[in-house]
Amino acid sequence: MKKRVLFVGSFKNTGKDGSVGGQMYACKSLISTPLSETVEWILLDSTGDSVPPPPINKRLFLALKRVIKFIYLIFKFRPQVTLIFTANGTSFLEKGTMVLVASFFSIKTILAPRGGPLEYEIKSSRLFRSFVKLILRRSSFVICQGNFWKDFFSSIEPSNHQKYVSIPNWIDLDSYIYNDKRTITNIQKKEEEPVVILFMGWVQSDKGVFDLYSALSRESLKNKHLHVAILGDGPAREELIASSRKQNNPNHTYEFPGWVHGTLKANYLAKADIFILPSYSEGMPNSLMEAMASGIPSIVTDVGAIKDLITNNESGLLIKVGDVKAISNAILHYINRTSETEKIIQSARQIILNNHSLETASKKIQTLIEN
Hints:
CATH class of the largest domain: Alpha Beta
Number of domains: 2
Radius of gyration: 21 Å
CATH topology of the largest domain: Rossmann fold
Structural class: alpha/beta
Oligomer: single chain
Distance between the termini: 15 Å
Number of strands: 12
């Protein structure tokens, strides 16, 4: 008999603003795996309205509605397990409340926290830290996006280390085109062809988009022929577009296509030479894994679980948050040292193949459900 699992997560194709995110893919992909042969899913969608989020009173109202529906679904379907994906901030407050409800009814709860800023919020607020500690204690299992998060959560609530299970983010490897000759064909271009730099994600200041723009404006890169594609949307997009239009450098071009999906996204990944994510906080970003799977060398900040993916100078280049000079130097490193770049590409690709497949993740989650 199938186990009934009340699954709280994001199941829509895109948000209302056309956005896509790692949590959407993670939740939707799980219910399309063979895991569904042993599980009867009861779905409760919690996709956010937009970024930036709506006013706090609206968020609290929507959160209350979902908590009430969560309780209703428990009474209606009597699930044996709850699987709850959560981001940071008010999302964690809402999903944490659901954990408490499930715990009250003695239902096994698997919590999957995925918000990068969660680390900062826990460190900066004693009250929030106490709430997180309570929720971790009441959860049966906590899915951690990597060893960084496993160590972090177990340091907050260390009473039962076995409940913290490292299941790194996953992607569908078949969706990404990989060409093992891309370093030779892309980075070593004819002089008139631009090096294509790719950013994918929310276009907002805490993703480091202005640090990226400042790095590209440095003297060391002014004479380099660069094309910058900013894939995504967010509150900083219009300001960034305005800044790029004011620049007086014919060697640099910018493109802001917004959120892209499917074949169009695959085309951008296939053409990109360098991926950059200078974010101030992260869980384990899908965009970075997509770049690694596609054979794009990366430049990323040393935050969250990124170190579980990137070893500096081996599978990518790690930089400190806000280090504009380091971004420009890393770009030059990839352009000028092609043989080293090729080794990084190969190593990064192998990490994704070995540890981040959807099949591997679904089997681990199945074990938690059936444990």
